[in-house]
């Protein structure tokens, strides 16, 4: 024997356990219970998703900045190295050496090379550090993308289906 929904009463002390509200209706003695998604839960999940997407975007920007700095360091190194004459560039014999450079130019290039060599170890360390940091960022972004995908699926599961407008 079914009890009509209109006579159904809940005590005030009973708390609703689930995160969704329910409605009930009665039709010829059969009770039909429908579940409506809780809009606050869906909004909370959407906010979490937006926060994850923003965090991913920030990490991508940070990774891009690190990669740009690595390229700048490599360009600086290439510029210095390409401006220093190589012995192979001189024609055979000592007489050709004077045609290409003066002693002051050679001294200037030697000084540049010395400064370059002194800073090279620091730059190499910085590049390795930046590369390690970008690798960690890639890993973090991957994990956050997985969380975002999971959250997106949860949002879709608790959101009411979209209805076509006439």
Largest sheet: 2 strands, antiparallel
The residue ranges in which pLDDT falls below 50 over 5 or more consecutive positions are 1-27
User: Structural class of the helix and strand makeup?
Assistant: mainly alpha
Tally of distinct domains: 1
H-E order: EEHHH
Q: What is the mean pLDDT? A: 73
Proportion of β residues?
5-15%
Number of strands: 2
Taken from the alpha-carbon principal axes, the silhouette is rod-shaped
Write a brief structural summary.
The chain has 166 residues and is mainly α. It contains three helices and two strands; from the N terminus they run ββααα.
Molecular structure report:
- With 166 residues, the chain is mostly helical.
- The protein has one domain.
- It contains 3 helices and 2 strands, in the order ββααα.
- A two-stranded antiparallel ribbon has the order 1-2.
- The longest helix is centred in the C-terminal third of the chain and has 56 residues, at 103-158.
- Residues 13-36 have a biased composition (Low complexity).
- Residues 1-47, 80-105 are annotated as: Disordered.
């Amino acid at each position: 024997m079914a009890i009509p929904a209109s006579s159904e009463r809940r005590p005030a002390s009973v708390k609703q356990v689930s995160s969704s509200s329910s409605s009930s209706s009665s039709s010829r003695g059969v009770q039909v219970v429908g579940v409506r998604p809780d809009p606050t839960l869906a909004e909370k999940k959407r906010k979490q998703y937006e926060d994850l997407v923003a965090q991913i975007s920030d990490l991508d920007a940070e990774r891009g900045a690190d990669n740009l700095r690595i390229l700048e360091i490599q360009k600086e190194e290439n510029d210095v190295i390409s401006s220093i004459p190589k012995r192979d560039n001189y024609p055979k014999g000592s007489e050709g050496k004077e045609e290409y450079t003066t002693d002051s130019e050679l001294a200037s290039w030697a000084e540049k090379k010395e400064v370059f060599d002194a800073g090279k170890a620091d730059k190499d360390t910085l590049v390795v550090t930046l590369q390690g940091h970008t690798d960690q960022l890639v890993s973090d972004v991957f994990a956050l993308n997985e969380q975002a995908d999971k959250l997106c699926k949860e949002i879709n599961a608790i959101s009411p289906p979209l209805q076509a407008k006439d």
